[in-house]
Amino acid sequence: MNKILVIGGGGREHAICAALKKSPKPLTLYCAPGNGGISQIAECFPSVKATDIDGAVDLAKRIGADYVFVAPDDPLTLGMVDAMEAAGIKAFGARKNAAVIEGSKSFSKALMKKYNIPTAEYAEFDSESIESALNYIKTQNKYPAVIKCDGLALGKGVIIAKDFAQAETAVKDILLNGKFGVSGKKIIIEEYMTGPEVTVLAFSDGQTVVPMVSATDHKRALDDDKGLNTGGMGAIAPTPYYTKQWENECLEKIIRPTINAMRAEGRAFKGVLYFQIMLTDNGARVIEYNCRFGDPEAQTVLPLLKTDLFDIMTAVIEERLDGIKIEFSKEYSACVVMASGGYPENYNTGFEIKGLEKVSDAIIYSSGTKTRGEELITAGGRVLSVTALGETLDKAIEKAYTEIGKISFEGGFYRKDIGKKAQNYVRA
Ligand code: AMP
Ligand code: GLY
Predict the structure, then answer these.
(1) What pLDDT was estimated at residue 155?
(2) C-alpha of residue 63 to centroid of ligand 2, in Å
(3) Closest of 239, 250, 270, 269 to residue 397, by C-alpha
(4) Ligand nearest to the CA of 229
């Protein structure tokens, strides 16, 4: 019996647990902290937070975990995989020296520059060089200007400034007023790019890299990309923008070169590398890297995975990914996230989630839920997501909306236009 401990407690971790659960191999699943939905398929440990490295290592030892799957960015950048390995436990995920590809934009931009991986032109500044930063913006005189915090900032550390005044405010907020704490000790100012955005997740054991089907996330809270940035309100896969031609270009110019660059730097990337790419008129360019599965991209892409995730996990850990064939279904997938009223700002929790039993033709993943007796109640901003598969993108989207329409909780909302731009693109 293989014992696997999954670290994290969102929809992504629910999707990872569900994919592992499908394995024909005998295995027992544990999850820390987990959530209400995950507790139906894995034993959860709500008191062990995802960032608690020592707590997670102790837990892994206590339950006798054979494998630990570290899913979120925080524990990866803090070095949880290294800590597990030091304790003699096999762990899936990027080591600290590789997770920096997400943890520091200063690092990732320099890496791309050094290895000629296409990305937006940029310059880097810190609190000593505020004047130079403002001069740079003035000299460039190109708006919008993109200003990014160096470190992790819960997806909020990117400011698209429409004019000099906005850019100046952003630079000062970050470097002078410390709006993003240590994440904003350095900033990147970069060229604004346009084009469809795609996410390509890829498994890598440091040497071999196997991309998964592409996806497109929807980051804004409201329809028509209005409202605030969120963790992601829904996604579709595969994304119609990502034609065979783009796929080849990205593989040759971005995906393989990045894995090779990380190895050359002595930072072999093992785990899932997330490429956020913009398909511009001047070719595919990296927007950013993440050192992990995305959320809700995991809930969208993993249901299409035909190969046993357990086999992939062990092959990555043991650096023999070239020995297995990874296959995806030819279907389309659509995932719609249902969130608490007010998310991503203030919201209330503790409401009963109704109608789950009526969902018949889709998968429900819990993000922020808890159990209260027999019921599932809301416990976070993003509460759950519903993923439906279909022979066409239209069918997958339609089904996802039919099924999510059966679920309700006080204040709950979801975007009504997940995948719509992509559908229009196909029709045009
Ligand atoms: P990030 O946190 O880096 O994923 O950025 C958040 C969003 O900002 C991305 O999804 C893009 O839509 C946008 N963005 C980031 N960098 C650029 C850029 N250089 N040009 C245009 N849009 C950008
Ligand atoms: N959905 C975007 C992310 O996981 O970073």
Answers:
(1) 66
(2) 30
(3) 239
(4) 1
Q: What pLDDT score does 185 carry? A: 84
Q: How many CB atoms lie within 10 A of CB 416?
A: 12
Distance linking the first and last C-alpha atoms of the chain = 52
295 lines ligand 2 (CB under 6 A): yes
| Nearest residue (CA) to ligand 1, atom 15 | 287
Question: Among candidates 291, 294, 213, which has minimal Cα distance to 258?
Answer: 291
79 has which bridge partners? none
Strand partners, 2: 27
Ligand 1 centroid to 158 CA: how many Å? 7
Own/partner pairs for 398-406, CB < 8 Å, 24+ apart?
399/334, 399/361, 399/362, 400/334, 400/335, 400/336, 400/362, 401/336, 402/361, 403/359, 403/360, 403/361, 403/362, 404/336, 404/338, 404/359, 404/362, 406/355, 406/358, 406/359
Ligand with smallest separation from the Cα of 73: 2
CB atoms within 10 A of CB 116: 10
Q: Which atom of ligand 1 is nearest to the CA of 219?
A: 10
The reply to whether ligand 2 has any atom less than 6 angstroms from the CB of 102 is no
The answer, yes or no, to whether any atom of ligand 1 lies below 6 A from the CB of 158, is yes
What number of other Cβ atoms are within 10 A of residue 64's Cβ? 11
Q: What's residue 227's pLDDT?
A: 94
**CA nearest neighbour of 6 among 36, 24, 48:** 48
Task: Decide: 403 in ligand 2 pocket, CB within 6 A.
Answer: no
* Rounded distance between C-alpha atoms, residue 57 and residue 85, angstroms: 10
Which residues in the chain land under pLDDT 50? none
Indicate the pairing of strand 186-190 with strand 216-217. unpaired
Nearest CA to ligand 2 atom 4: 294
Atom nearest to 12 CA in ligand 2: 4
Where is 396: in which H helix or E strand? helix 393-404
Question: Rg for the chain (alpha carbons), in Å?
Answer: 21
- Residue nearest ligand 2's atom 3 by CA: 294
Considering the entire predicted model, what is its pTM?
A: 0.96
Q: Residue whose CA is closest, atom 14 of ligand 1? A: 287
Locate tokens 């130079």: which residue?
132
Model pLDDT, residue 151: 84
Query: For residue 183, what pLDDT is reported?
Result: 80
Ligand 2, pocket-test mutation among 154, 198, 290, most atoms within 8 A of CB: 290
Distance of CA 217 to the CA centre of its chain: 9
Asked whether 155 lines ligand 1 (CB < 6 A), one says yes
